[in-house]
Specification:
Layout lengths: L1 H5 L28 E7 L2 H16 L14 E3 L5 E8 L1 H6 L4 H12 L3 E6 L4 E5 L17 E3 L6 E3 L4 E8 L4 E3 L2 E8 L7 H15 L5 E5 H32 L4 H6 L1 H15 L6 H30 L4 H11 L1 H20 L9 H35 L20 H4 L10
Antiparallel strand pairs: 1-10, 1-11, 2-10, 3-8, 4-5, 6-7, 9-10
C-alpha cells in the first residue's frame, strides 16, 4: 500500500508502526521515520555537502538494512531546491540617502511578514491591525520595485532598488539547528527482521568514513535512547549480580556459597541468548527485561538447594550427604516452579496478544534460559557446592578473615563425620 501511495508524483508516503512500548524523547520526530541520525557543524555548506554523501551511502543499503524509498526507508530534513530571494542592502548608497539598514529591514517586515502592528481594544472585543501589501503586489520578486522608503529624517523618499539589490536563488527550505549549529537529520525505518544494532553499526562506520573531524554526528530520538539503554542495562546486569552476591553472602555468612547460587546465571543467560539466535530474534529492550526475570527465577533454584544443604551441614551431616538430600528433596518444588514459569512464558514467546510480536524476545529468553539452566544446573550446582566446600575447608578456613563460622564436619564419610566434635587433622 505504501508503494501505491508513493507512486503519486510529489507525494512522500511513510508507513510507521505504533508499538505498545514507545520511547518518546522529543529529540526527533516520528513522522518521517522511527529512528534518527543527525550531523551538525559550523559551516552550512560543509554540512549540506556531507549530508548528501551520507544520504547516497544510506540509499545504497535500501532493501538490505533500510526499507525501500517508496516505503519511507531513508529520508532527511534537507531540501535544497526551494526558490529563495536574497536581498542585499547597499549600505554605502543607503548612507548617502540618510537611510539606516534597520529602516530597510522594518520596511520589508511591514510589507511581507503579516505581523500586527497595533491592537485595538473595545469593551466586548479586540482587533489586530495588520500592515501589509496587497496580495497582487507581493507575488513576484519584481514587486519589490514598487516599494519606496523614506530617509531617517523624513526629508526624502527613494525607491527600494536604490538602496538594495536582489536575486533569485535555490536554497534550503528550512535551516535546522542542533545545539545552535546547522544540522541535517536523517530518519530511517528498518527492513523486517533487521536488528537496530545492525543499522546503528553500519551508520556509525559510514559516518566515521564520511563525516570530517570538524563536524559532529550522533543518533537522536529512539536510536540514541536504544544505544544508551543497552549500555546502561549491561552495567545494571553486573550490578544486580553484585548486589545478589552481597545479600547472599550476608545470609549464608560465606564468601563462596553465593557463588554456588549464582553459578547457574551465566548458563541461563547464554541459553536465553542462544534461543534468540536460533529463532532469529533481536536482543531488544524486552529481551533485557526477560534476562532480569530469568536471573531471579534461576537464582531461586540455586537458593533452594544450597540453603537446604547448609542447614544439614550445620546439623552435622557431611557435605556430600547434605547436597544429595537437598537435590532429592528440593527436586520437586524446583521443577514445579520452573515448569510454571515456562508455561507462563510460552504464550509470550508465541506472540499471543495485542502487539505480541514485540514481546516474543522476552518469552524466548525466559523459556530457553530456563530449559538450558534446568538441565545443566541440576547436575552442576551440587558439584560446584562440593568443590567450594572443599576449598573453604582446605584454604579459606586457614585465615581468620575468610573463615566460615559454620562447622564443617568434612567432605568424607569416615571418622570425622561420625565424630564432628573431634579436631580436624587439616585444621578445619
Amino acid at each position: 500500500s505504501g508503494a501505491i501511495i508513493a507512486a503519486n508524483p510529489g507525494l512522500l508516503a511513510f508507513l510507521i508502526p505504533q508499538p505498545t512500548l514507545q520511547i518518546s524523547t522529543g529529540a526527533a520526530s516520528r513522522s518521517t521515520g522511527e529512528f534518527s541520525f543527525a550531523i551538525s557543524g559550523v559551516d552550512p555548506n560543509e554540512v549540506y555537502a556531507t549530508a548528501g554523501k551520507l544520504f547516497g551511502a544510506f540509499m545504497g543499503q535500501t532493501g538490505k538494512i533500510f526499507l525501500p524509498m517508496a516505503m519511507g526507508g531513508v529520508s532527511s530534513d534537507m531540501y535544497l531546491q526551494t526558490p529563495q530571494l536574497q536581498i542585499q542592502i547597499l549600505r554605502d548608497q543607503a548612507a548617502s540617502y540618510g537611510i539606516s539598514p534597520t529602516r530597510i529591514e522594518n520596511l520589508l517586515r511591514n510589507a511581507y511578514s503579516q505581523n500586527y502592528v497595533y491592537l485595538i481594544k473595545r469593551p466586548t472585543n479586540q482587533y489586530q491591525v495588520i500592515l501589509e501589501t496587497k496580495d497582487s503586489d507581493r507575488s513576484e520578486p519584481e514587486n519589490l520595485d514598487l516599494l519606496y522608503i523614506k530617509s531617517d529624517d523624513g526629508s526624502r523618499t527613494v525607491p527600494l532598488s536604490a538602496v538594495a539589490k536582489w536575486n533569485s536563488t535555490l536554497g534550503p527550505q528550512s535551516i535546522s539547528h542542533l545545539n545552535q549549529f546547522t544540522s541535517v537529520t536523517f530518519s530511517f525505518n528498518l527492513m523486517p527482521g533487521v536488528p537496530l544494532g545492525t543499522a546503528t553499526d553500519f551508520i556509525e562506520k559510514t559516518a566515521a568514513q564520511i563525516v570530517p573531524s570538524t563536524m559532529r554526528s550522533e543518533f537522536q530520538g529512539e536510536a540514541l535512547t536504544f544505544k544508551n539503554t543497552v549500555r546502561d542495562l549491561t552495567v545494571l546486569l553486573f550490578l544486580a549480580v553484585f548486589v545478589m552476591y552481597v545479600i547472599l553472602g550476608i545470609l549464608y555468612e560465606s564468601y563462596l556459597h553465593p557463588i554456588t547460587v549464582l553459578s547457574s546465571l551465566p548458563v541461563a543467560l547464554v541459553g536465553g541468548l542462544a534461543t534468540l539466535l536460533i529463532f532469529h530474534q533481536e536482543a531488544s529492550l524486552y529481551a533485557y527485561i526477560g534476562m532480569f526475570m530469568l536471573m531471579g527465577i534461576v537464582k531461586k533454584n540455586g537458593i533452594m538447594i544450597v540453603d537446604f544443604a547448609i542447614q544439614r551441614v550445620a546439623q552435622g551431616q557431611t557435605a556430600e550427604q547434605a547436597i544429595h538430600d537437598a537435590s532429592m528433596d528440593r527436586f520437586r518444588p524446583i521443577m514445579m516452579t520452573t515448569m510454571a514459569a515456562i508455561m507462563g512464558a510460552i504464550p509470550i514467546a508465541a506472540g499471543f496478544g495485542a502487539d505480541g510480536a514485540s514481546r516474543i524476545p522476552l518469552g524466548l529468553v525466559i523459556v530457553g534460559g530456563l530449559i538450558v539452566a534446568q538441565i545443566i544446573t541440576l547436575y552442576i550446582t551440587p558439584a560446584i557446592y562440593l568443590y567450594l566446600e572443599l576449598f573453604q575447608e582446605k584454604v579459606l578456613d586457614r585465615f581468620s578473615f575468610t573463615r566460615n563460622v559454620r562447622t564443617h564436619p568434612g567432605m568424607g564419610t569416615g571418622d570425622m563425620s561420625m565424630h564432628p566434635a573431634s579436631p580436624s587433622p587439616g585444621g578445619g
